[in-house]
Amino acid sequence: xxxxxxxxxxxxxxxxxxxxxxxxxxxxxxxxxxxxxxxxxxxxxxxxxxxxxxxxxxxxxxxxxxxxxxxxxxxxxxxxxxxxxxxxxxxxxxxxxxxxxxxxxxxxxxxxxxxxxxxxxxxxxxxxxxxxxxxxxxxxxxxxxxxxxxxxxxxxxxxxxxx
Length: 163
What we know:
Elements: E1 4-9, E2 12-18, H1 20-24, H2 31-47, H3 52-65, H4 70-82, H5 87-125, H6 130-137, H7 142-154
Antiparallel strand pairs: 1-2
Helix pairs in contact: 2-3, 2-4, 2-5, 5-7
């Protein structure tokens, strides 16, 4: 069994890693050790000279293969806050949490606009068939949803809408 993975395209390496973290789940170690190992792995990642996308991939990898329960999470946070050598880890996690929250808020805003559009359509036209409902749910563009929300006001019938 290989001990790593390389993704190469046209002779250029785009991704290379070793499976050490995956083996952690099979190893016998204490819960206390896992917390310290995770903090150390993230500290090493924070010091790597890789771009943000690769760093994000590595952080996601660690999060997937070294999950912590609530008690371990509190200990992890106390470790990275108490020791200066983990300062970058704390900042790095905060950056990725903010990005995740922004993505979540964006998705929530799009879904709220979809819901508002369907509600207006049902109110004005009394009925929205399943096909049109699926078409609305497939729209990811805020601009398109905003345009449709305004178009509902002037539409005489549901076919006037460019869904």
